[in-house]
Structures are given as structure tokens and as C-alpha cells.
Specification:
513 residues, alpha/beta, eight-stranded mixed sheet, six-stranded parallel sheet, globular, binds zinc ion
């Protein structure tokens, strides 16, 4: 039996101006990786691909990988890029016994608002009966075509996503079990008219913690696979929002009952999924006060000579410009406020500004350089634009920007920040990069000689994923509302295509609208 395993993964922020072309899916290569090289690269990694490969190894099957195409979140995928990726998968789909697909679930292309559903529809057109397993991100915005075309669908149970490998494993095993006749999967899906805020979706916190615990209970007892998708709200598409998919062993009534229970539970907690904002000036001054209080307390009480560093840094979260939700990673307002309020000993990750990186490189290590940092990419979807920051600093270090991920998300895979460097402005070290990467692994600092635990403050362009690698290191987290396409101020965003009414954009009386 021959199984095709492939990835087409992109979370599309329809408000993001960042262009999503083939280069973005190619991980710094000419084209996305494939074949034996891809199998070796993804075996035993913390990824859905890794989980699929493991599932296949437990059965008597051979595998091939036509393409592994994953890109950091950004704007709608270019049509030719989408067609290239899809063609590689379709080509393989006509000559195999089953397919395992590592998809995202929130991919929007220039032509299709349900990129995954369109791929699955096209596979069904050439291979009507082939079993298909799909692994999806928790931020998937589910469309009927996904459920109608796939045999089994499994989504992550964690955010940050530290169970990508076990998601691939759950989907892969469920598919292979159905093929050897152990189970007969049947799927039911449903959604609720709500857009949970990304900052309130973490599975360390109520209400998603409780929801995912119930999901795990269902999966451990009667159901084959259960997934609750919190959805991705920064996508102005019809089916954005929270949904569930339940797979049972030939029991659609049970699937419907379990799905409804989860949707009711999520709907009842809809108000807890709403995020309350704090003005930027206030957040930064609160962070500063925590740092200053710590110096006073510790220097006066610690007789062993330990300073406040032992308590871990204070993390300022520039979450409106979150890389992992399609941020341009170059808005300057939080950094500007940090400098204005004169916070000392800060490490910042990161600014996507290839022009400044090249300027730093030509100036040379140790040189003083004046740059216009950030705000390079206009954000037409937003009323409020970022402004470039003129800074004079010292080029402290340059690097090729590659390091191995060592945390529970992407462990075993190489991270690539592109050509990058550190610009030191007084005691503020700013990492400037040429490829967007989400700072979930402290390796993004350590690869450049910055030990994050030794700094008083960190600033990260992240929302929830920083928790994977940074939560154990930091003492306090201060959420800072800057400027960016991941804004929590929904009045800045024009929602024209999402189904209405939907909470919290509208008052909605019941889960059924
Ligand atoms: Zn996600």
C-alpha cells in the first residue's frame, strides 16, 4: 500500500499586506522541499508531517512526499503559488492508495477563500474514492468542502501548538485503521457565530483549556477524533470563527451530540473570549514600574549578591504585530514607547527590515549607523499606520540567522531568520531580520549571543506562541497594544464578507443566530 504525505500550510490574514508567494513557502530554498530529503527532514520532528510519517511507520505501507509547502502567516496566497502547490499534490494523488495532508485550515488565496476545501475538491475530482486524512491547525476556519471531501480530520488540541506531531499521528492512525477495516469513520461538523479573540484562545487559560479538556475526554472514550477549532478572526471570509469536527466509528448521531455539546460550551463562554485592551503608554509604564520596583527590592534584600535577573525578565508583548498571525513584523510603536519611557536593558525580537539589515552589513560590525527602522510596508486595511523610527546605534553582530528549533513546537527543524543582525541602541538590543519568523524559541536570541534570561526586559512580536519557549523564562508578561494587522481594535478592520450577525462584531442572541 502506498501513501502520499504532503503539506500545504498557510494561515492567511486577509488584512495583511505581506505578499505570499512561492519563495515564502520554500524555507529559504529555490522551491519547497520534497521526496526523500523531505522524509528525512521531517522524521521525528514536532510537526504534523512528523506525526504522519510515524503513523505510516506503524503500518505495512510505503510513503512518498510530493511537496512540503509551509509559509509563515501573511496575506492571501498568490494564485500561481497555490496552483503550483496543488498541482504537485494532485499529480501524486492519482497514483497512490491514500493521502495524508498537513493543511492549516485558514488558507485564503487571491481566488479562493477556502484554499484547503478547493484542494480537497480537486483531489476528489481525480480520485473519488481515495481515503484522505487531514491534519489542521486550531485556527482553521472550517468550510463544508473540507469535511465533505476528507475521510478523517484532526485539529491541534493545544495553543501554543505543542501537539502538531500527535495531531498528525491521530489523523494518520485513524485513516490507516479505517483502511485495514478496524473502524468506519463518519464525520459531523458545526460552527458557532463567534470570533474568539486570539489573545484569549490559549489552552493554558479558561475557557479554551476547559474546552480542550472536554475534547480530550470525548476522544478518550467514544469518539475516534474530536477537534475544536477556535478559528482565525483576522480573515474576512464567510466561515471565519469557531467550529468543531467530530469523527466517530460509524455513529453520526453521537458525532452530532458531542459536537453540539462543545459548541454550546464555547457559546456560553463567548464573553470570556473577548479581549480587553490597555492603552500603550500605560502598559509600558506598568512594565517599567515592575522593573524598577524589582531593583529596589532585590538590591536591598539579597545578601548573596543575586540581582533581579534571577527573577527572569519582564516581557513586553507587541501583539498587534504578531508574526504568527500575519503581522508585517515592522511596526514601531511599542519599541518607540519603550525608548520614550527610557526602559534599560531590553532585548527586542524582531524587526523584519531587509533594507536595514543590508545597511548594517555594509556599515560593518562595531560601526555606528543611523537607520530608518520599520514601517516599510503600508497596511491599506488599517486606518492607523505605523511610522518609521530613526535610530542611531552600533552594529553589534551579523549572522546567517539559522538555528535548530529545540522547543516542543517544530523541534528538530531548522529555523531561518535570513541574514540578520543586532542593532544596539544604548542598552536596547534590536534583532533585525530578513525572513519573518515567530519568536517561540529562545534560540532566536541565543543564536545571536543574547541570553534572554539575563535581560531585564524582552520585547517580542508574538501573541501566544512565545509561551512555548519563553513562558518558563519570564517573570511577568505585559501585553502592549501597538499598531498592526493583528489589531484587537476590530473597529479598524472592515469585515465585509464574514457571515453576520457574528459575536462580538454584532449582538447575537443565540448560537443558532
Ligand atoms: Zn495556529
Amino acid at each position: 500500500m502506498h501513501i502520499v504525505i504532503a503539506q500545504m500550510s498557510h494561515e492567511t490574514n486577509t488584512f495583511s499586506p505581506v505578499i505570499t508567494d512561492l519563495a515564502r513557502f520554500s524555507g529559504g530554498r529555490d522551491l519547497p522541499v520534497s521526496g526523500q530529503e523531505a522524509i528525512e527532514m521531517y522524521t521525528d520532528t514536532a510537526s504534523s508531517m512528523g506525526g504522519f510519517i510515524q503513523a505510516a511507520s506503524e503500518f505495512d505501507v510505503t510513503i512518498s512526499v510530493p511537496i512540503v509547502a509551509g509559509a509563515a502567516p501573511s496575506g492571501p496566497v498568490e494564485d500561481e503559488t497555490y496552483e503550483y502547490i496543488v498541482s504537485k499534490i494532485i499529480e501524486a494523488a492519482v497514483a497512490c492508495d491514500a493521502i495524508m495532508l498537513d493543511l492549516h485550515g485558514a488558507m485564503v488565496t487571491k481566488s479562493f477563500e477556502d484554499g484547503e476545501g478547493e484542494l480537497l475538491r480537486r483531489i476528489r475530482a481525480v480520485a473519488p474514492d481515495i481515503p484522505i486524512a487531514v491534519a489542521l491547525d486550531m485556527h482553521a476556519n472550517i468550510y463544508p468542502a473540507i469535511v465533505e471531501s476528507a475521510t478523517v480530520v484532526a485539529g491541534y488540541h493545544t495553543y501554543p501548538h505543542v501537539d502538531m506531531d500527535s495531531t498528525g499521528l491521530r489523523a494518520g492512525r485513524a485513516l490507516l485503521n479505517s483502511m485495514v477495516g478496524t473502524t468506519t469513520p463518519t464525520m459531523v461538523w458545526g460552527n458557532a457565530p463567534m470570533l474568539p479573540h486570539v489573545m484569549r484562545q490559549g489552552t493554558d487559560d479558561y475557557p479554551n483549556k476547559a474546552l480542550q479538556e472536554r475534547v480530550a475526554e470525548m476522544e478518550a472514550s467514544d469518539a475516534v477524533v474530536v477537534s475544536l477549532f477556535t478559528g482565525f478572526p483576522h480573515a474576512d471570509i464567510y466561515n471565519a470563527g469557531l467550529s468543531v469536527i467530530v469523527v466517530t466509528d460509524n455513529d453520526p448521531e453521537l458525532a452530532k451530540r458531542l459536537g453540539d455539546e462543545l459548541l454550546d460550551q464555547a457559546w456560553n463562554d463567548r464573553q470570556v473570549f473577548v479581549y480587553e485592551r490597555e492603552p500603550l503608554e500605560q502598559s509600558v509604564s506598568r512594565a517599567k514600574a515592575i522593573g524598577e520596583e524589582r531593583i529596589t527590592t532585590n538590591y536591598s534584600t539579597d545578601t548573596k549578591g543575586n540581582d533581579d535577573v534571577d527573577q527572569g525578565p519582564i516581557l513586553l508583548l507587541d501583539h498587534y504585530d504578531n508574526t504568527a498571525s500575519g503581522g508585517t513584523m515592522d511596526t514601531t510603536e511599542v519599541l518607540a514607547e519603550i525608548l520614550r519611557q527610557d526602559l534599560q536593558d531590553v532585548a527586542v525580537f524582531g524587526f523584519y527590515d531587509p533594507e536595514v539589515v543590508l545597511q548594517m552589513q555594509s556599515a560593518g560590525i562595531g560601526s555606528s549607523v543611523t537607520v530608518s527602522l520599520g514601517a516599510k510596508l503600508p497596511m491599506p486595511a488599517l486606518e492607523e499606520q505605523s511610522k518609521p523610527l530613526t535610530l542611531t546605534g552600533r552594529v553589534k553582530l551579523m549572522s546567517d540567522g539559522r538555528f535548530p528549533a529545540t522547543v516542543a513546537m517544530s523541534r528538530g527543524l531548522e529555523m531561518n531568520m535570513g541574514l540578520c543582525g543586532i542593532l544596539s541602541v544604548g542598552t536596547v538590543d534590536i534583532v533585525v531580520i530578513s525572513r519573518h519568523i515567530e519568536p517561540f524559541d529562545p534560540g532566536c536570541f541565543r543564536a545571536l549571543g543574547i541570553e534572554p534570561t539575563q535581560r531585564k526586559y524582552l520585547m517580542l512580536k508574538s501573541r501566544i506562541h512565545y509561551r512555548v519557549g519563553f513562558m518558563p523564562l519570564v517573570k511577568e508578561v505585559v501585553e502592549c497594544a501597538g499598531v498592526g494587522v493583528c489589531t484587537s481594535d476590530y473597529s479598524q478592520l472592515k469585515f465585509e464578507n464574514v457571515r453576520r450577525p457574528i459575536f462580538p462584531l454584532d449582538g447575537v442572541n443565540s448560537r443558532n443566530g
